[in-house]
Amino acid sequence: MTTKIAFIGFGGVGQTLAKLLYEKKDEFFKKYDLDFEVVAVSDVMKGSLYNPNGLNVSRLIETINKTGNLKAYSDESGLVRGMDSLETIKKSNADVIVEVTFTDVETGQPAIDHCKAAFKEGKSVVTTNKGPVALAYRELSKLAKENNAYWGFEGTVMSGTPALRLPLVTLAGNKIKEIRGILNGTTNYMITEMEKGCSYEEALKKAQNLGYAEADPTSDVDGFDARYKATILANYVMNTELKANDIPCVGIRNITNEKVSEALRENKVWRLIAKIKGDENGQVKASVQPELIEINDPLAGVSGATNAIVYECDLAGSIMLTGPGAGLTETAYSLLIDLLHFKNQ
Ligand code: HSE
């Protein structure tokens, strides 16, 4: 059966996923019995289109590439223009909403309202937005469950590197005692550039030019981005009710070239480490801060924008996962993982 998709937000990640589903349509159908149709796109900047019979993805992408928005998408039978995000979620015939809007991580909006609206309609959501998961995980997962809807958010931590499914699905049966990770690519890139002699400002500029940093890099350098990811890991993987504000957070502003060089002379490196640890009484505590770690620590070898995470498992031992934590294809891929699981649930 064909699964109908609505894109809420249609920036780089959404477009990359749409292209991926279109270009690999035959392969996904043969391999996974997966047949998707894009029925709606609603984007505050680019405009909105809805066709219950399906939109033409190659024409969507072509129109955006040529004109920057969706106005010039030619008329076709059944086409409706101009529905806003909530109307699209409520009124379209989509089964699953791909929520990839630009979201304010401090309020989680508008993504939280998009998820709520979808779940109330019994529609499923896949998203890469950290806000709804970091700020409203309990409320939204309850709402999804009550309405038999699926909620996938693999890409919120380490994009397409499966930091959430690895501990819960692949390592099922273990008790995860501790999680330590490098969860922010920008700051790790900056620190390793500083190890090569770059100044803090130069390293930040380079990270911004390479597209690693958030629109407001404060979220990266002050550790807030890593703190949201630690909140998601604490709630979802370690099943504890920890709020972002409960996690002490120090960023990398005080890391200087002198400190970095001095550490290297002592066979150590600075890394921005997110840590989530449970004690014997089951109480979970978390922190995000720069830590001076020995050169033979598995996280010390992680350089550039790469992310890494170590799960301390009671049965499987210490398991490390490393890979990209950002990137258009990688993030679009994380949504594909969720769509595959949605299809197979
Ligand atoms: N700015 C983030 C990072 C992007 O540098 O890791 C992915 O969340």
Automatic annotation (TrEMBL):
Entry-linked Gene3D superfamilies: Dihydrodipicolinate Reductase, domain 2, NAD(P)-binding Rossmann-like Domain
User: Cross-referenced Pfam families, in alphabetical order?
Assistant: Homoserine_dh, NAD_binding_3
Keywords of the record: Amino-acid biosynthesis, Methionine biosynthesis, NADP, Oxidoreductase, Sodium, Threonine biosynthesis
What EC number(s) are associated with this protein in UniProt? Answer: 1.1.1.3
Q: Which PROSITE patterns match?
A: HOMOSER_DHGENASE
Q: Which domain of life is it from?
A: Bacteria
Metabolic or biological pathway, per its Swiss-Prot or TrEMBL entry: Amino-acid biosynthesis; L-threonine biosynthesis; L-threonine from L-aspartate: step 3/5; Amino-acid biosynthesis; L-methionine biosynthesis via de novo pathway; L-homoserine from L-aspartate: step 3/3
Top EC class for this record: oxidoreductase
Catalytic residues at K229
Q: Where does L-homoserine bind?
A: E214
Q: Residues in domain Homoserine dehydrogenase catalytic? A: 169-340
Listed binding positions for NADP(+) are G9, F10, G11, G12, V13, G14
Please name the GO terms that the record assigns under molecular function. homoserine dehydrogenase activity; NADP binding
Catalytic activity annotation: L-homoserine + NADP(+) = L-aspartate 4-semialdehyde + NADPH + H(+)
Share an example GO biological-process annotation for this protein. methionine biosynthetic process
Could you say which residues bind NADPH here? K130
Q: Where is the Aspartate/homoserine dehydrogenase NAD-binding domain?
A: 9-153
Q: Which family does it belong to?
A: Belongs to the homoserine dehydrogenase family.
Q: Do you know which NCBIfam families this protein is assigned to?
A: PRK06270.1, PRK06349.1
- The protein's name is Homoserine dehydrogenase
**Organism this protein belongs to:** Evansella cellulosilytica (strain ATCC 21833 / DSM 2522 / FERM P-1141 / JCM 9156 / N-4) (Bacillus cellulosilyticus)
